[in-house]
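Risk register update: the risk of archive-format incompatibility is retired. Evidence:
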Amino acid sequence: MNVDLLAHPAEEVAPRLLGSVLACRTPEGTVGIAITETEAYSGTADPASHAYRGRTPRNAVMFGPAGHLYVYRSHGLHWCANVVTGVDGIASAVLIRAGRVIEGEDLARERRGERVETARLARGPGNFCQALGITGGHNGANLLSGASVTLTEGDPVPTALVRIGPRVGVSRAHDWQHRFFLAGDPTVSAYRLSPRAKPSAGA
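Archived output:
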């Protein structure tokens, strides 16, 4: 994937990432997942973004350059992966929420559990990272350098299949229409409104 495709605001890049493939190579093998659901987070302009209050050691990767991986721990339990977008110095990232395993399904299933349904192997951001084998050690990885974690363009996704909706489980700016997903795809996660959701101005 060309970095120029990522050097735009998160809400523009998020739908373009649908169909792209995120792959992770580990000593156990390689898993590749075609992205089916994303969420855009617009940095200091976005109350739901980790960068809303400015740069910190935790969120520094979000401030660029584009094409790197921002990985964080959610609720102390799950790793979540974000593709950094936009211009260097301005925080912007796309959370990868779900996908379809297209390479290394046996390894993904070993990581997720033998009884997990195929459609649920990478459904939800935590499961996505677990299936891929992504951890905090991948934070800051260059996705375009051909290293252990890579992002490549997949088959084009017809515009008619792309749906837009509010983000899942966030308490602030929950009603922003920054979630993008493939219509009718079984790997897409279910929408849940956070019980802590507060009214906000839309974007």
